[in-house]
Every structure is written in structure tokens, then in C-alpha cells.
Automatic annotation (TrEMBL):
Residues 37-239 form the Xylose isomerase-like TIM barrel domain. PANTHER family: HYDROXYPYRUVATE ISOMERASE, INOSOSE DEHYDRATASE. InterPro entries: IolE/XylAMocC-like (IPR050312), Xyl_isomerase-like_sf (IPR036237), Xyl_isomerase-like_TIM-brl (IPR013022). Pfam families: AP_endonuc_2. This is TIM barrel protein.
Length: 308
């Protein structure tokens, strides 16, 4: 007889539109937002992210009504930024960020996930800029991200969590460490996406142990090592890699999530905080009937790891 794993009392499990193949505010290949909300609740999740701005209702009262009657709460909104370009992009960046932050705050969220802009087009692979930042661009990235963290905190009461992401400039362990070393811990935390970090050669447990005080949020995701090897060999951009299935259903890929969750639980206990761990299985595009069975199985698997 096997014993039950220790309860992960410091982890709040959720899911996101991404796990339903949603990448854009409106796309005929995507699941409709009403169906997403119905199915994410049916799969056993209590927390969700907003996904791309405009996918879920942007009227705060409507959003609260639609999520509340399904027993759902919002953990975070998400924005894409190109802050390494410096002050020249601030006004346009803030126009986008402020809309998302305002809605996230109104929905009761406490976080804003910040994803750096892609250096190549995630669909076509067209190179948009150099994949390596200059020293000046690193300084601007740090300076403008701190500014964003301060403004979002002071105006909306949200904590920004920067998401290392494939095909961006904050990706590999070296770049993640450089970014963390260059930014103020009081203003900038990290959203550790276990799948993206593995995609870019990182070890999530090692990151949790080395930079635990900087980890403010988690995305739970796995990569298929066989497909990842093909992606690396062929230098595929992220979009086609996802379409090929590089992000896979747990527990069939890497990293193993049990030690990640155990390290996150230990971290949460040491800091006396609860950490969100939001399931994100990138799979755009996907048939509309595919996400729900995967979401149910993933929720059951996470319960078997102690995530209630």
C-alpha cells in the first residue's frame, strides 16, 4: 500500500486559457471563452489567469459575474513588453499594461505576468532583432522593468512577475541570472515556467534553490525531450515547435513536477507565503474537444503529487 504524498499546503493550483489553446483575443481556431470557463471549472480548478486581453470579458462586473458563478478566481493578468528598447517604448507599453492591470486588479488578482518580447516571429521565424542584447539594452531592460514594477505596484497594487520565455532575451539560465542580478528584488520577481525553462536548458529545482527569494509565481509545464531535440536541431521558432507538440501533457515530459512542487512548497513555508502554480500546456492550435480531458487528467495527477 502506497502512502499519500505530503499535502502541498503552500501551493495554489490553477489553469489558464493557454491550456485550452488560446493565444489571441479572438481567433476562429480557439475555444470560446464561455466554454473555457465552463470546462476549467469542470476540470477541478479554482484559479485562472486572464489570458490575452480581450479574450475574457473586459467589463469588470461581467468578468466577476462569469467567474464567480463558476466558482473561479483570477490569479493574474499577462502582458508582453519590449522594455530593452528603453524610454522610447514606455508610453505604448504603459497604455497596454495599464488596461490589463486595471482589469486584473478589479478581478481580485495580485499578480501581473510580464513576458519579454520575442526576438523572432513566433509563427514565421522571421528574425525581428538580434537574439543577444547589448550591454546598454540589458541596462534598459533592468531599469524599465523596475519602473514597470513600481508603477504597477503603486497604481494597482499588483506584483509583476517576469516570465522567462523561449525566443526572448530572458531565456537561458545565464540570461535569467543576469536579469535577476540586475533588478531590484523589491520591485521585480520571477514567474518560473518549468516548461520554458527546460526548453531553454534550465533546471527548475536548481533555480528555486538558488533564487528562491526571487520566485513569486509558477507556471507548470513539461516539454517532450524527443521533440525538443528536433526543435533545437532544426532551429524551429516557438510557434511551430508548439504545433509539433513540444509542450506535452504531464507526467510524460520534463522536468518532473514532483520535485519542483516539493521545492516550491519548501520555499513557500520558509517565506510564509502561498505560491500560485498555474498549469499552462501550450497547444495552439488544437481541436476544441482536446483540452478538457487533458485538464482533468492533469488535475488528477497534481492531486497525486499532493496539490489539493
Amino acid at each position: 500500500m502506497t502512502s499519500s504524498p505530503p499535502a502541498l499546503t503552500r501551493i495554489r493550483i490553477g489553469s489558464a486559457p493557454d491550456s485550452w489553446g488560446v493565444w489571441f483575443p479572438d481567433d476562429p481556431l480557439q475555444t470560446g471563452w464561455e466554454r473555457f470557463l465552463d470546462e476549467v471549472a469542470d476540470a477541478g480548478y479554482a484559479w485562472i489567469e486572464l489570458g490575452p486581453y480581450g479574450y475574457l470579458p473586459t467589463d469588470p462586473a461581467r468578468l466577476r459575474e462569469e467567474t464567480g458563478r463558476r466558482g473561479l478566481r483570477v490569479s493574474a493578468g499577462t502582458v508582453f513588453t519590449g522594455l530593452h528598447h528603453g524610454p522610447a517604448v514606455w508610453d505604448d507599453t504603459w497604455a497596454h499594461v495599464s488596461r490589463v492591470a486595471e482589469l486584473a486588479q478589479a478581478a481580485g488578482a495580485g499578480h501581473l505576468v510580464v513576458i519579454p518580447s520575442f526576438w523572432r516571429d513566433d509563427k514565421t521565424g522571421a528574425v525581428l532583432e538580434d537574439r543577444v542584447l547589448t550591454a546598454d539594452q540589458w541596462r534598459e531592460l533592468a531599469r524599465q522593468t523596475e519602473r514597470l514594477g513600481r508603477e504597477v505596484r503603486d497604481r494597482y497594487g499588483l506584483r509583476i512577475v517576469v516570465h522567462p520565455h523561449a525566443d526572448t532575451h530572458v531565456d537561458t539560465p545565464g540570461n535569467v541570472a543576469r536579469f535577476l542580478d540586475a533588478t531590484d528584488p523589491d520591485l521585480v520577481s520571477l514567474c518560473l515556467d518549468t516548461g520554458h525553462y527546460a526548453y531553454c536548458g534550465g533546471d527548475s529545482v536548481a533555480l528555486l534553490k538558488e533564487f528562491g527569494e526571487r520566485i513569486g509565481y509558477l507556471h507548470l509545464k513539461q516539454v517532450d525531450p524527443r521533440i525538443l531535440a528536433e526543435v533545437v536541431a532544426e532551429e524551429l521558432p516557438f510557434g511551430p515547435a508548439v504545433a509539433r507538440g513540444v509542450m506535452c501533457e504531464p507526467p510524460g515530459g520534463v522536468p518532473a513536477l514532483e520535485p519542483v512542487l516539493a521545492a516550491a512548497q519548501e520555499l513557500g513555508a520558509a517565506r510564509d507565503v502561498e505560491l500560485f502554480a498555474i498549469v499552462e500546456q501550450d497547444m495552439y492550435p488544437c481541436p476544441p474537444d482536446r483540452p478538457l480531458p487533458i485538464a482533468r487528467r492533469t488535475r488528477d495527477y497534481l492531486r497525486s503529487c499532493g496539490a489539493r
